[in-house]
Amino acid sequence: MAAPLPVKPLRVAIIGAGPGGLATAIHLLRLKDVELSVFDQARELREVGAGISLNENTWRLLQDLGAADKLEQYVKRGANGKILMEHRNGRTGALLSRAYHNGDPDKPPAVRVERYKLQNALLSQIPPDLIQLSKKLASITETPSGVTLTFTDGTTAGPFDLLVGADGIRSVVRQHAFPTHKLKYTGKVAYRVLIPQEKVAHLLPDIPPASCFWHTRRNYIYTNVLDNGLFEIATRAEEPEEHGNKVSWGQTMPKEQVVHHYQHFCRLLREVIDAPDDWLEFAMFGGPRLESIIHNDRIVLVGDASHPLSGAFGSGAAFAFEDAYALKHAVDFARTHGHDLGYALQLFDSVRAPRYRDLYGVLDGMANNTEQVKSQNPDIDDDAYVEKTTERNWQQAQERGFIYKYNVSSTRPITPSPFADD
Predict the structure, then answer these.
(1) CATH of the domain at 380
(2) pLDDT bucket at 193, cuts 50 / 70 / 90
(3) Rounded distance, CA 401 to CA 26, Å?
(4) pLDDT grade, residue 135 (50/70/90)?
(5) Name one Pfam family in it (predicted).
(6) Residues 120/74, Cβ–Cβ less than 8 Å
(7) Rounded distance, CA 129 to CA 133, Å?
(8) CB count, 10 Å around CB of 136?
(9) How many domains does the chain have?
């Protein structure tokens, strides 16, 4: 039997101050009688990486978080006829598909911004002294009085009524709550970088001024000409497990480590890859879907901690914001209707677990599409393979509005009726 949800205060700890942890903090601070603590292992808060996509659902959630105004200066609304995204053959440069911006100035735009700008927008909504830094979680102890945290510096905190694991794909909280769930190195690393456009100025006339994926059979290169004078490049490459297990998140690598992976791309892309002097490297890990993302009526996972998708869909921030929104409303509903914390977390889980089930289903569908192309055309050449798999996977993805246009606020389980008392 879960303990009754206390009227005041609800003691909450959030582990992780990335987009998911910050969004959860913003939402829970809006509830009455919540005693909130936020811990992060970093010595200073900084976003590691390059750009981040803000799609329609991300923008809607940012507005709810009060952070959208901080990002409006980087947005051009009503860009009717402007290219939003292209997919091209990375060997030949041939256009495979193209999408355009929504020209409606009243609808949320799809934009690409630097990660630190999103972080600063979220931090603007949080008291500056709320986040405790240099707090790397070592262990979690559960007792009848709550959850106590022990950090690697020897300090402890708690007990807390609710622990929110927002500590990323290699989540310590998830490891505690679901010890049999194991991550696995995917065999790939991501390379990302932002450079001044001057470094590729001679190449820009041949590069689409939008998000562009350049595909080959083995891997892809992503390019984007940003509005602030920067040029973004992101890609993935196969590396042995021994290498991947040694890579820290956002480790600086010289170009010599990167360029040899892309010699099969066209000259234009080889020159693009050769332009940066250094890259940031990220080892890609993934894991199976969790059937539930709550534990013992007192622990909940949000963001990458709850869905180790290894960066699929490019919408990790949006998924984390959805989690934060759902958690706040589930806790608020439970408290105002006399239910306990376990009820609140089950309500949250009933909304979010199916969402991640559907997203994993998309990945399974993409893998099946690839296998079908191979089995139906055993001798297919590389260019035909790229065309067919891109058509099946990426063009179909544009039709899946539930990924990028999903509105968590309209999800029915958040309303009282599905959870009425017997």
Answers:
(1) 3.50.50.60
(2) very high
(3) 27
(4) very high
(5) FAD_binding_3
(6) no
(7) 10
(8) 14
(9) 2
